[in-house]
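Is this the right way to post structure tokens for a design question? Let me know if I should format differently. Anyway, here goes:
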């Protein structure tokens, strides 16, 4: 992770948390988070530096560009479309011998964005350990979700924003994913989403939709909803480019434009808090 701070000790500041790469194949999510880091540090986006400097002097930014490193490495070396973690998770088809050996081979990995302890294992998941949406036998079985949730829970009272980058579909997703009834903070969420998608559109003309997570598909056990349950009212997910033409294999030529539009969306979001 990356701590970006100036002056006052970070534990005296309100925190803005950002992560990417929780799903291994979503490479552009980590690249976009790094573009935001570079913007905060003044290495890109000179026209935005006065705004970012003011925010850096006031708030603490805690950023995790790569939150599923084992899965990411396997997506580079084994299977480009790998989504999950890489720990052995069970036997194919559930068939194993009396002494615990798998008859048809092992399954690997848990979906780390279904592994959080919020409405765990109910919606948008599979009991098949080979499934891309297998949530694990229980919440927080994975090293990465254990580490993330431990830090986030410890500092939840300081955190004003949690933002998780994914791809693809061009969406701003608001809480919650497991209940079709709008939460009490829905009006605030709607305003935040409008600010983000308008800023994104104003950059390169890309349309991102402002919807609740459950409107995409119902899901249990996501990091966004767990953070919202911990009292972080501004807990969101952004699904980056594109809308399906290239999908997870977004051309390299679109990495920087995706960063440019989303750093402006991020700035617009910060200005709503």
């Amino acid at each position: 992770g990356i701590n970006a701070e100036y002056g006052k000790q970070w534990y005296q500041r309100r925190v803005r948390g950002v992560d990417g790469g929780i799903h291994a194949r979503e490479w552009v999510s980590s690249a976009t988070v790094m573009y935001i880091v570079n913007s905060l540090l003044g290495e890109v986006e000179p026209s935005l530096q006065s705004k970012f400097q003011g925010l850096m002097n006031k708030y603490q930014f805690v950023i995790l560009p790569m939150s599923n490193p084992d899965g990411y490495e396997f997506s580079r070396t084994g299977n480009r479309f790998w989504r999950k973690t890489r720990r052995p998770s069970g036997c194919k088809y559930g068939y194993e011998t009396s002494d615990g050996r798998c008859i048809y081979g092992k399954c690997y990995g848990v979906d780390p964005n279904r592994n959080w302890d919020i409405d765990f294992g109910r919606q948008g998941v599979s009991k098949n350990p080979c499934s891309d949406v297998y949530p694990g036998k229980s919440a927080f079985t994975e090293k990465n979700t254990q580490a993330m949730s431990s830090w986030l829970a410890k500092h939840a009272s300081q955190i004003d924003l949690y933002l998780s980058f994914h791809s693809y579909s061009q969406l701003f997703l608001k809480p919650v994913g497991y209940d079709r009834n709008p939460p009490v903070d829905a009006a605030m969420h709607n305003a935040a989403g409008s600010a983000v998608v308008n800023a994104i559109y104003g950059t390169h003309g890309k349309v991102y939709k402002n919807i609740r997570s459950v409107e995409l598909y119902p899901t249990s056990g996501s990091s966004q909803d767990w953070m919202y349950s911990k009292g972080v009212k501004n807990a969101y997910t952004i699904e980056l480019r594109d809308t399906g033409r290239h999908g997870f294999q977004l051309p390299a030529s679109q990495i920087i434009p995706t960063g440019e539009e989303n750093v402006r969306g991020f700035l617009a979001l910060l200005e709503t808090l």
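Format looks fine. Someone answered above. Worth noting: The mean pLDDT is 95. The chain has eight helices and nine strands.
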